[in-house]
């Protein structure tokens, strides 16, 4: 499984909704799938699984808004 | 002189910013001139109180030295204790200024805007800890960021890296024209909100309530809604001034309000009301607390952890407003609302008890509106000062 799919399946786990796999361009915050708590869980998991450390204030909701965009951001930081 | 408090202030601003506008329209850089304007404007704002001016200068030196020393330290080391110590030192002036009135007659620590400036200092310490600020910050920029006069008295609370980007970017004449237009638009919206609507609610309704209301209960009820609307129009009006003037100076200060009375629930409300403050608490208190607890695996229950985070956030926010009883109860009220809403949201996700459609959306807005207004009623202190 490539990196992008791994990120998206992690998001599906955290949001507890497979819609992120079906529509990877959905705005997670607008759709109510991700909130502050979910974001922290995501960042902890990203650190544990991929070894990428994303500081909380680096997570700008305007940029890290959709599954695809989050995957792009994380790929950049790899 | 109170910022945005009188037409004289706006007149002085117009004169001071005329060269900024001319430079901007010609597509020339104006930040150096704007720094000069900021010094003059601060002089005018604080000229009425030498005590406050001195407190502001001492505070600024304190924060700048602390930030510089911490950045230098962080380049080589990353100790926990030093980080906590730096955060404590950064909020110490604010804590002193809030406590001192209880012990002493003169408050030589406090000044207009200390609560807001503290956020900027603490934020820099935390972002340095995160490794987001690596290089030493140029002194002039750091000072300009902390002392940026349009937002000095009550925010919006900007972030250093965002502010710094605005200073870097080149603005063409055409782009500046748009920025100027938006800025002026905001300033006139501010006039409408603060000096027309807010003023009218207070002057014609709240001060005449004893003639309008027929009973004590009616009086309190009218006060609750009128005060809530007044608070919004007054503060949103002020924010529009601060943001508008920032735009004219080429700095896109963040927004503070996004139709808060149309919130669907309490969580939504905190994404719309005094946003620069609530986002600060979200990013630097709530999320950090949850992150830390999750990593250390001290609290495994997700709901408990989230609720504890909310309680911490809103208690701190309450205390930040002041140590008076109404602010603390206001914090407790919102903490309890968030905890209750959290449980409701979880329950609803499972049982789909509250459907999502146009009717329920409107009902949700109406319920949230009344709940919020009661919060402002607590905040107003009316409950605790009988006979005012």
Percent range of helical residues of chain A: 55-70%
Largest sheet of chain A: none
The geometry of chain A reads as globular
Number of domains of chain B: 3
Folded structure, characterized:
Chain A: This is D-alanyl carrier protein. The complex is a heterodimer of chains A (78) and B (388). Chain A is globular. Chain A has one domain: ACP-like (Non-ribosomal Peptide Synthetase Peptidyl Carrier Protein, Chain A). Chain A has 78 residues and is mostly helical. The mean pLDDT of chain A is 90. Chain A has 4 helices and no strands. The mean pLDDT of chain B is 94. Chain B has 15 helices and no strands. In chain B, 73% of the residues lie in helices and 0% in strands. Chain B folds into 3 domains: 128 residues, no CATH class; 76 residues; 121 residues, no CATH class. At the A-B interface, helix 3 of A face helix 12 and helix 13 of B.
List the SSEs and their pairings.
The complex is a heterodimer of chains A (78) and B (388).
Chain A: H1 3-15, H2 19-22, H3 36-50, H4 67-77
Helix pairs in contact in A: 1-3, 1-4
Chain B: H1 7-25, H2 31-46, H3 50-76, H4 80-99, H5 114-129, H6 139-147, H7 160-168, H8 173-205, H9 209-212, H10 216-248, H11 266-270, H12 275-296, H13 302-321, H14 325-351, H15 358-380
Helix pairs in contact in B: 1-2, 3-4, 3-5, 4-5, 8-10, 10-15, 12-13, 13-14, 14-15
Name the descriptors:
heterodimer, A: mainly alpha, Non-ribosomal Peptide Synthetase Peptidyl Carrier Protein, Chain A, B: 388 residues, mainly alpha, 15 helices
How would you sum up this structure in a few lines?
In chain A, 55% of the residues lie in helices and 0% in strands. Chain A is built from 4 helices and no strands.
């Amino acid at each position: 499984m490539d990196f992008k799919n791994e990120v998206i399946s992690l998001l599906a786990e955290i949001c507890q909704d497979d819609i992120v796999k079906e529509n990877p361009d959905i705005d997670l915050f607008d759709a109510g799938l991700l909130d502050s708590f979910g974001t922290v869980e995501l960042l902890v998991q990203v650190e544990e699984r991929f070894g990428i450390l994303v500081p909380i204030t680096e997570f700008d909701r305007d940029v890290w808004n959709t599954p695809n965009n989050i995957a792009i951001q994380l790929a950049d930081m790899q | 002189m109170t910022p945005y408090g009188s037409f004289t202030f706006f007149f002085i601003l117009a004169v001071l910013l005329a060269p900024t506008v001319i430079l901007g329209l010609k597509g020339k850089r104006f930040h150096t001139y704007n720094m000069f304007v900021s010094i003059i404007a601060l002089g005018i704002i604080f000229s009425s109180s030498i005590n406050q001016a001195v407190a502001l200068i001492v505070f600024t030196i304190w924060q700048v030295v602390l930030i510089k020393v911490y950045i230098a330290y962080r380049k080589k080391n990353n100790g926990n204790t030093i980080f906590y110590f730096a955060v404590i030192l950064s909020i110490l002036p604010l804590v002193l200024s809030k406590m001192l009135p209880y012990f002493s007659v003169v408050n030589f620590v406090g000044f207009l805007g200390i609560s807001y400036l503290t956020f900027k200092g603490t934020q820099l310490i935390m972002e340095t800890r995160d490794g987001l600020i690596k290089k030493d910050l140029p002194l002039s920029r750091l000072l300009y960021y902390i002392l940026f006069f349009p937002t000095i008295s009550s925010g919006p609370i900007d972030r250093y890296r965002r502010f710094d980007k605005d200073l870097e970017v080149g603005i063409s004449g055409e782009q500046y024209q748009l920025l100027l237009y938006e800025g002026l638009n905001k300033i006139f919206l501010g006039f409408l909100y603060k000096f027309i609507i807010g003023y009218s609610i207070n002057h014609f309704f709240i001060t005449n309530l004893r003639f309008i209301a027929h009973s004590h209960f009616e009086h309190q009820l009218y006060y609750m809604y009128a005060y809530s609307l007044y608070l919004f129009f007054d503060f949103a009006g002020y924010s529009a001034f601060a943001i508008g003037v920032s735009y004219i100076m080429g700095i896109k200060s963040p927004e503070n309000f996004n139709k808060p009375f149309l919130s669907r629930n309490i969580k939504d409300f905190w994404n719309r009301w005094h946003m620069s403050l609530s986002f600060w608490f979200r990013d630097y208190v709530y999320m950090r607390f949850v992150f830390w607890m999750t990593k250390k695996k001290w609290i495994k229950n997700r709901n408990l952890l989230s609720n504890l985070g909310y309680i911490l956030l809103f208690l701190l926010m309450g205390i930040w407003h002041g140590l008076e009883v109404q602010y603390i109860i206001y914090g407790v009220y919102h903490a309890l609302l968030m905890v209750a809403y959290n449980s409701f949201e979880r329950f609803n996700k499972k049982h789909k008890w509250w459907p999502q459609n146009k009717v329920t959306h409107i009902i949700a807005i109406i319920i949230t509106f009344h709940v919020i207004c009661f919060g402002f009623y607590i905040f107003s202190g009316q409950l605790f000062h009988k006979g005012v």
